[in-house]
Amino acid sequence: MSRATRVSILITIALAAVIAVLTLMPPNQVEVPSGSDKTYHFLAFAALALPLAAVRPRWSVALFLLYSAFGGAIEIIQPFVGRSRELADLVADMAGIAIGMALGFLAHLLFQRLGGWGASTGDESRAGTSSSTRHRG
Questions:
Q1: Comparing C-alpha atoms, which of 67, 134, 76 is closest to residue 95?
Q2: Is the pTM of this model over 0.70?
């Protein structure tokens, strides 16, 4: 597994932990800035989806399902901690996931063009060839 993948996994786990804590704390214990709750859901899940989408875009379908299930689990658990369950929150989560993944994919393409992390999947390095030598032939 490439270093970029390992770092992205760690970032994703940290973000998931922060999201879980903030969304499952009783409402009187969380200081929420003014604004739309749905905006916070959207931004949090976009941030969650972006890192791995940037380095492992081929994982996108599985990750979309995993992140959506995470958002759904949070909504199921929230009534047990004094918060409300809202389908609109899950929809905002899923929209954020889609946008985060799209931005991650664009970042992946940009880094490939700039040679930032090469093919980024690490498959070529394990095979002992690089994408540039493979296409010259």
A1: 67
A2: yes
